Inverse folding.
């Protein structure tokens, strides 16, 4: 009987302790909440500020990524979109024509229909920008921007027939100095009609100051001549910061700032005012370039 009584007492004590513990926890929790309210702090909610910061940061990153992706898409698809008038690209560039900003020189006027004053690489007034005004200001374009005919196709045409036997040299030294072989062939046609022995200047019509080391003193030796002429143009292109029109003009004695009046007044044979038109829209397209242009000042200058 006494044993039963002792067990009952112990059981009651355990129940009381459990109830007190539960009640104590509840009181502590209420005390904490009340203390927060008393200090003007709201009871914490399920979504903490830390969680919201993570979401906000993620949102910014996503937004930033979205902003970056938009211009990238425009750049990738740029040529397919309506040209931006702000940079003066031709109003409706044709397939097979140059596609660049005009550089402040007005409408490029590129066309697949080659004429005396226009062609795939722009109209004559554009490549000669400023020549009739304040001075020549060549549009800054790269050699890779120009439309150029494949050299093998050109060599199989009647126009470039005189150059065919030298095609291997144009390729050899063009590739060596990073110049399209068709460019080298175009210079040879423009300068000598691919007649290696027209004078001591040879195929590329290099000047005597560049003839040092010529085999037997013969500056017109085809291999030597093409190598020196190609290297010279590559050097000029580099010095001009990659401005290909400036470098082409320099091969014929052109200088930024020169004007039509100055050239015609000096009657300087080297500065053929039709040179750029003949070169970029004639020879580089695999067609005869001498008939292009309008100045025809080469025949009037004093030798």
């Amino acid at each position: 009987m006494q044993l039963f009584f002792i067990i009952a007492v112990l059981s009651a004590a355990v129940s009381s302790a459990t109830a007190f513990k539960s009640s104590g926890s509840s009181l502590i929790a209420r005390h904490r909440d009340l203390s927060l309210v008393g200090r003007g702090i709201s009871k914490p909610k399920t979504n903490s500020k830390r969680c919201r910061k993570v979401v906000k940061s993620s949102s910014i990153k996503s937004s930033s990524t979205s902003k970056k992706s938009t211009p990238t898409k425009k750049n990738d698809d740029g040529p397919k979109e309506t040209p931006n008038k702000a940079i003066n690209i031709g109003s409706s560039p044709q397939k097979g024509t140059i596609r660049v900003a005009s550089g402040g020189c007005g409408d490029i006027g590129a066309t697949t229909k080659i004429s005396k004053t226009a062609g795939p690489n722009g109209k004559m007034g554009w490549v000669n920008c400023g020549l009739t005004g304040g001075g020549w200001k060549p549009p800054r374009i790269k050699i890779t921007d120009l439309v150029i005919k494949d050299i093998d196709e050109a060599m199989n045409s009647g126009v470039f027939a005189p150059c065919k036997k030298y095609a291997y040299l144009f390729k050899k030294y063009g590739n060596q100095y990073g110049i399209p072989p068709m460019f080298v062939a175009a210079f040879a046609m423009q300068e000598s009609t691919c007649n290696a022995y027209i004078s001591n200047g040879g195929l590329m019509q290099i000047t005597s100051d560049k003839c040092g080391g010529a085999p037997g003193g013969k500056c017109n030796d085809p291999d030597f001549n093409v190598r020196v002429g190609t290297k010279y143009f590559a050097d000029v292109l580099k010095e001009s910061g990659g401005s290909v029109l400036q470098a082409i003009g320099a091969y014929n004695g052109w200088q930024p700032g020169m004007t039509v009046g100055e050239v015609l007044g000096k009657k300087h044979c080297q500065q053929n005012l039709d040179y750029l038109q003949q070169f970029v829209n004639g020879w580089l397209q695999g067609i005869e370039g001498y008939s292009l242009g309008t100045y025809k000042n080469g025949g009037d200058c004093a030798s």
Remarks:
- The chain has ten helices and no strands.
